[in-house]
Amino acid sequence: MMNREDYVKQIPDYQYMRETVKKDENRLHFHLMPPTGWMNDPNGLCEFQGINHIYFQYTPFLAGWGTKLWGHYTTTDWIHFRECEPFLFPDCDLDRDGVYSGSAFVDGDKIHYFYTGNVKLQDKDYDYILEGREQNTIHLVSEDGVHAGEKQLVMTNADYPADMSKHVRDPKIFAKNGRYYMVQGARDCESKGCVLLFESEDLMTWKYFDRIVPEEKFGYMWECPDLFEVDGQEILIACPQGVPKSGHDYQNVYQCGYFPIEMDFENKKYKLGEFHELDKGFDIYATQTFLDENGRRILIGWMGIPDADYDNDATVEYDWIHALTMPRVLTYQDGKLIQKPLEELKSLRKNKMVTSITSFGEWTTIDCCFELSVKRDDENAAMILGLRDDVTLTYKDHILKLELGKSGHGRKQRTVQLNSLKNMTVYSDTSAIEIFINDGEEVMTTRVYSEKLNQKVRFLQSETDGEIEVYNLGSFVMELSLIHI
Questions:
Q1: pTM assigned to the model
Q2: What is the C-alpha separation between 112 and 386, in angstroms, rounded?
């Protein structure tokens, strides 16, 4: 358990850690990171009165797994960010072992927050699956997104269906037909993953409504669900755990993707479509979306995956670990969820260069921070593009392959099958790469830790010509503060 007073007492350690953090060349330029310590799931994403709030799972004094708070950044333009002091602390019996993931719902002049309060019993030996854990759904209200109101318990394990394990978590709220609904990720007693759906008239009293589950088992646990509509199509995002690899699909230890879904709330019926991965790279999990005040559906994910056989330990000696993806705008076109970076990020561009593939040769980066767009004349031609000394993208026979060497820290290869490769845009940061393929139909995200950042980008092979557009990219402007004591 940690409250605000405990946090303030450790401020001297925090100041020391910040000086260590500054020394790391792997600190990212245009991705959000923890000021110090550990970051994972984005939480409570919302825009309220013109201010975008990005909360996140946070352990400020340890670059490793520990008791979780909600860290907090705000921005009005997605370039300038302000660090606020932590928004939620595990400071009561309902969440004593961690303020776990949750969401925000803007209703008029207030923001309603819902999250999972984690309690892990220690009085005897438990399996922590069917017994030994409390997953409390907690609600609170804020009038400004900075000061949290009183915590209110709205559901406990006893309020979930009787056939559920003790793993029910990650509430996300939406409104439909004049009522409120909540989805939560779950694992039933037979280790079958699903999403639970709850209903409310007032955001205070919730009752079980239905569950969303595939006809055949698809993983043993679904985390971080999100149900929303975009361009007339309802989408269910979830992170299934325990899905075995199948060809070019499900190459990561846990998955992160979406189901097109047709919901009939009146008759409690649904039609669940085929699961599609959101990202075919190494590092994507726990995504969350929100609708901003311009009507855009924006997605942000955690650039990490639990229990992976590769690591991000290169930054631990500098007292920080993990980051969030670039914010992506979602649209739905021709049966696919399309992801593109926010338009606001174009203001980071510097030193534009336009050339052809055959004239490109090689280009040396200063800090590995660049945007590189390629449009190919022959969509089926083979190619090999070197993004760094030991990072390559190879396209051949409708397979795009991302390969990393030593700088991958155990990351070796990820592939995606394509009908053709028309174009792609690579966003390279100091220790992260995000690749948007065929106008955002597919994405590949990875962390990478090169020994030096003056790397060369070059076409090692290309059987077609085309256009290349390159920019150096600047940095987010971060207003970092310690705490308002």
A1: 0.97
A2: 47
